[in-house]
Amino acid sequence: MTGVDERSAGVLGARPAGEDVFSVRGLRAGHGPVAVVRDLELSIGAGQVLALLGPNGAGKTTLMETFAGLLPRMNGEILVNGAALPKGKPRAANKAGVVLVPDDRALFTTLTVRENLSLARRGAGPSLDDMMELFPALQKRLKITAGALSGGEQQMLAVARALVQNPSVLLIDEMSMGLAPVIVAELLPVVRRIADETRAVVILVEQHVQLALEIADRAIVLVHGRVQLSGPADQLARDPERLQAAYLGEHVGEPPHTPGEAADQGED
User: Which residues, 6+ apart, have CB-to-CB distance to 111 below 8 Å?
Assistant: First the structure.
């Protein structure tokens, strides 16, 4: 019993397919006057999973916090469904459908699983029953406080709490933080299911590179605040030497394309 339901049948309710849901133009972000991320360009369509990879200190968490409005961007635009987000306004970002699962999960540890979900849920969001289908391990834990859950159960609850807010853009920062690889391997496929069923954009920061590439559509490697490598996730998964070189800060260019495949419009 994994606690994660990987059935293909939908329970979350899909949005209609459309154009790019999440776009970033000329983004510079950082803390105070210090730029950590520079000149980022990014466009992600409905139902796509982007794996945001890179070594520690590359600027990944800074980027996620900027997307969520927790940090004011220094320059550039962030657009959700074509509408620009104001700088450093987390409520506005959340209202526009951007929901962050931070690396510390930020659960209300003294409240029960049910209470955590009930407080977060929006009227149009998935129901409590939907979350129990997605994460059946939580079914018998509804009356247990979040602080008494295992690490894997806490991560399930953190993602479920984000989902009941009906996000258009779901940001997951280090899902695997503090978890055994076997638990990560169980949890990551549900990210693919979320994107497929809801058509939400999912941006995933993850240190388990190969596992992330297995469920992602695209990936970028961020090094010292700049995109060092980008491309289709399946192509990057087949080229570990290129990935390793990118992590080391070496210029590696675009990944090779299979015959007849259109070139990926990456962020390099």
Answer: 119, 145, 146
Task: Give the amino acid at 1.
Answer: M
Give the pLDDT band (50/70/90) at residue 19.
Answer: low
Tens of pLDDT, residues 40-54: 999 999 999 999 999
Separation in Å, CA 254 to CA 38, 113, 267? 19, 44, 10
Cα separation, 152 vs 196, in Å, equals 22
The CA distance from 246 to 24, in Å, is: 22
Tokens of 101: 């699962």
pTM confidence score: 0.86
Task: State both tokens at 88.
Answer: 């450093």
CATH (domain of 224): 3.40.50.300
Token duo for residue 124? 């149009």
Give how far Cα 183 sits from Cα of 96, 107, 133, 170, 215, Å: 31, 19, 18, 20, 15
Domain span holding position 199? 47-62+97-247
Number of domains in the chain: 1
| CA–CA gap between residue 169 and residue 183 (Å, rounded) | 24
Q: 56 in a domain, yes or no?
A: yes
Position 231 in a domain? yes
Percent of the chain topping pLDDT 90 = 76
265 falls within a domain? no
Encoding tokens for residue 232?
């289709």
* Rounded Cα distance, 263 and 78, in Å: 24
Q: Which one, of 235, 243, 220, 227, lies nearest residue 44 by Cα? A: 220
In a domain, 239, yes or no: yes
> What's the CA gap between 32 and 203, in Å, rounded?
24
